[in-house]
Amino acid sequence: MSLSDLCFSLGVAFALGCDAFAVGLAVGTRNPCRRACFRLWFHFGLFQFLMPIIGWVIGSSIYEHIKDFDHWLAFGLMFAIATRMLYESLQKEECTEEQRADPTRGLSLVALSVATSIDALGVGFSMGIARMELLKPAIIIGITAAIMTFVGLRLGRRLSYAYGKKVETAGAVILYLIACKLLTI
Q1: Comparing C-alpha atoms, which of 45, 176, 177, 16 is closest to residue 109?
Q2: pTM of whole model > 0.85?
Q3: In the chain, how many domains are there?
């Protein structure tokens, strides 16, 4: 891999990892356990690794069919999760930790993983059209997203300890902003 290819891969990885960082920050405000943190950063890294490969493989045939509404799908997933998170952040303290939905499990985890990596699908598609090498950049993208998610989770947790439930509300607002950004892809 040449230096210019490495710089390209790192730049793309950082840009794609920004959504993962922001979602990690938002989820981190909920003080997730270590296992939940692992699930989130692992899945974000995995999806950011796989989506460019999928985009590269499927090429224009399928992409042409979904390109008109892929941003709406990503928006809907992120908006629903943000709404649930905002609702829970505005609840009185009567709600125990066990009663709160864990965004790092089940469909929420898959929805967040897909929503944050949908841009990577387009990147992979573009790289396929340009006949660029994919495996090394996909690995760099996945690792970068995992690291950025981990950092976001840690920062979100620290902010939550310092500022309480207000930070969780701010985390939901961040997810709303990401959802709106997804409408522009």
Answers
A1: 45
A2: no
A3: 1
